[in-house]
Amino acid sequence: MKPIAMKPISTGIVLIASLLSTGAFAADLAPRPYPKAPVMVDPGYNWTGFYVGLNGGYSWGSANSSIAPFAGVFPVPAYAPFRQNVNGGLGGGQIGYNWQLDRTWVLGLEGDIQGTGERSSTSLTAVGPRYGAFPNGLPNALGPDFNAIASQTAALSYDLQWFATFRGRAGVLADPQTLLYATGGLALGGFKYTAQTTTSVQVFTPGLGGTTPVGAPIVFAGVAASSSDTRVGWTVGAGIERKFSPNWSGKLEYLYMDFGSKTYFAGTVNQADVSFHDNIFRAGINYEFNPAPVIAKY
Question: Domains, the chain, ranges and CATH?
Answer without folding.
Answer: 49-68+85-288 (2.40.160.20)
